[in-house]
Amino acid sequence: MTDTPAARQRHRVVIIGSGFGGLFGAQRLAHADVDVTLVARTTHHLFQPLLYQVATGILSEGEIAPATREVLAHQQNAEVLLGEVTKIDLEARTVTHTAVGRDTVTEYDSLIVAAGAGQSYFGNDRFARYAPGMKSIDDALELRGRIFGSFELAELASTPAEIQRLMTFVVVGAGPTGVEMAGQIAELAHRTLKRDFRRIDPANSRIILLDAAPAVLPSFGERLGSRAQAKLREMGVEVRLGAKVVGVDSTGIEVEHGDGTHERIEAVCKVWAAGVSASPLGVQLAEQSGAELDRAGRVLVQPDLTLPGRPEVFVIGDMMALDRLPGVAQVAIQGARYAADQITRRVAAEPPLGPFHYRDKGSMATISRFSAVVSIGKFQSSGFFAWVMWLAVHLVYIIGFKHRITTLLHWAISFLGRGRAERVMTQQQVFARTAIEDLGESFDPQLPRVPGDRPAS
Amino acid sequence: MTDTPAARQRHRVVIIGSGFGGLFGAQRLAHADVDVTLVARTTHHLFQPLLYQVATGILSEGEIAPATREVLAHQQNAEVLLGEVTKIDLEARTVTHTAVGRDTVTEYDSLIVAAGAGQSYFGNDRFARYAPGMKSIDDALELRGRIFGSFELAELASTPAEIQRLMTFVVVGAGPTGVEMAGQIAELAHRTLKRDFRRIDPANSRIILLDAAPAVLPSFGERLGSRAQAKLREMGVEVRLGAKVVGVDSTGIEVEHGDGTHERIEAVCKVWAAGVSASPLGVQLAEQSGAELDRAGRVLVQPDLTLPGRPEVFVIGDMMALDRLPGVAQVAIQGARYAADQITRRVAAEPPLGPFHYRDKGSMATISRFSAVVSIGKFQSSGFFAWVMWLAVHLVYIIGFKHRITTLLHWAISFLGRGRAERVMTQQQVFARTAIEDLGESFDPQLPRVPGDRPAS
């Protein structure tokens, strides 16, 4: 509590968020003459690209979410505080964060805002209850419970319609997360659960991947997109493009096709991997600095990633809008390092860096075990070789030696064998959070449906 | 849904529960001429002796809780159904079980009731909110959130009293689970978290192990009990014996000492590892068969583990009262195998086995890494050698090859290194289930306390 005079003199950097931007920013400041305070509302750093593997029972949550303070334990100039930031005061240079109902105010000399993005339901937030997103460990565990739980309930169901509805899985959004989820649910149904049931055959599951856009993995280009689509079809995933979701309720989903016709798909388990909206903190930053927000709520930053008139405030990662850069880990990491270097130079009274330039390191997505797509500049690859690249890159990036080994083992179990080491559903997942009334209702066809707001079709 | 005539003719065995009794009973019937239906309210088998390692961040839930249907996938005569048994009708020979609000009735020819035991608060169920038990994965994850969360909140706290209260951990019950929990929390505080915090020093934590009885690990005998107690003291655990808990609230716990004096211990995080009470299904069995129940709600069975006048109904494991046998895994496993063998003989028209005889394979408990106590008949050992025995036995018993390897690795991380691979708290754990109001309240000393029912002292 009592700062030494020396500590008080140092330049104070506050970082909001423990994602790729927040964590890599803090680490980049390890040797700078600054004190770093990282404030985040979770106690872990989330390796989001592998969240779908937690949702489908391959990895444990610990394997993709090391404790932030453990990662930074040896960085003496960094501290980690649990708290949700509720207020940023650019004038007073303070951040207010709250944990279990109590506010703490932390002062800064430089601020890096890396609070990321949440799921967007495009104005239909009531969909969230019926189609959880894929943004947090809680989301992944919730979906794990729903996916495995659907098969459990199908085993108990008594009518063919009920069984079919429980064995139909709809993934909304054909970006990397949606493609990976659909591929993994297909693997679950066709391989993992092959011998687990007696009354149903999991291979009869329907896995449907929906997107309003006309292509799968549009950011990978047309060639890789159609390869991915072909591979998904081969795996038994029904790909429906140009299909806009207009209604979601406990027992199904309603889509509008390009020709204006409506279709209802009966499905208990829905996954929302469609839109993102930036942290609401962007609104405060915009109001106080005059910066503009784009449609997804991202802050339009200056070429040096700062707010207009506020050179001490950086906005990076999924919260930042600049040059149409995508919301991927590399943009956050490179932005974080740029901001950290800029602060380091300022504190050392060195000349500032030029504008931020993003170096595209390419992107990759797995379709199934042994099959991925990779796009690095002009280099494009799909299939097994791309999958080996995916494996190598992800192993290197997973933070912490220990996680790499157990992760490799869990992958061996799932990719070479048939098993899933992490299938646990807690009572919370099975009963509490999935809302008994929802499942109970969908489970019994006699009960009336939740009306939702489906347009009369 | 449509049984073949051949299937219909087979003897139907229903097993209630997926613990040691239920699972080992089902496996023992693999080659019997019967159809087995295992009904359980969780989808996993829980390796309960290692639950404390999930609560303290060493293992993931998947490592100690394989999916029951995965374990039984290759046993063609067994099926697994998710459901909580609400009714047993001994006359009609049916079991009614419910999942997400719908009842299913399953008929049996033989029944093995292995529904286990829950935590007992000795009539003070309101303690549960403030001091979670150690009986399920949900319990362990809840406690994981509370233990790690207490340190997170201490780092944010502003008064010495508040910090002390958040860094005081009380474990109630000095049996194996309580001793193991207390030992692991001490390791967390003194080793794992050593470098993780900047404002608090986790080594200043107080870990208090309470029991109303006069000894630690009474089932291990006086010599091993006092060795364990000495080792715990050496590790910084305060052992308080002859201390009966008379009140628990959000900020502390109140005990009554042997001399009648009362003491209040300020502590936010409390763990209840004290009593067990058998499944309430025992009451139904007793009412319908005339069997008696003991104080812990266990059913007094015949020498062949059946109910009086109901030779087709076996009650085993923690639900069974016979010859003062303890509620340990080996009693459940041996009882399950006996019941399965008895059923197999009956179906094959072979003469029945004689009365059940328990073969004591000994018991063991870890105190810390590299230190355990082991008692096998007259053989007693404590320290490193006992710990190696503990390690070997637990590795062999953990079900499934894959879990063994990752478990070994996680143990290497925690025992040889300092890390904990599984420290994730979900939002549910941190905020929802620990009840914001409780922590918020304990977090701010100005707010009034929950009165609880503490006697005026």
Structure description:
The structure is a homodimer of 457-residue chains. Chain A has 15 helices and 23 strands. Chain A is α/β, with parallel strands linked by helices and 457 residues long. In chain A, strands 3-2-1-7-19-18 form a six-stranded mixed beta sheet. In chain A, strands 11-10-9-15 form a four-stranded parallel beta sheet. The first copy, chain A, has a three-stranded antiparallel beta sheet with strand order 4-5-6. In chain A, helix 6 runs antiparallel to helix 7 (160-166). Chain A is globular, with a radius of gyration of 23 Å.
Secondary-structure map:
Two copies of one chain form a homodimer.
Chain A: H1 5-9, E1 11-16, H2 20-28, E2 34-40, H3 51-55, H4 61-64, H5 68-71, E3 78-82, E4 84-89, E5 94-99, E6 102-107, E7 110-113, E8 117-120, H6 137-156, H7 160-166, E9 168-172, H8 176-192, E10 206-211, H9 221-234, E11 237-241, E12 243-248, E13 252-257, E14 262-266, E15 269-272, E16 275-278, H10 281-289, E17 299-300, E18 306-307, E19 310-315, E20 320-321, H11 329-347, E21 363-368, E22 371-376, E23 379-383, H12 384-397, H13 401-416, H14 427-433, H15 436-443
Parallel strand pairs in A: 1-2, 1-7, 2-3, 7-19, 9-10, 9-15, 10-11, 17-20
Antiparallel strand pairs in A: 4-5, 5-6, 8-16, 12-13, 13-14, 18-19, 21-22, 22-23
Helix pairs in contact in A: 2-11, 6-7, 6-14
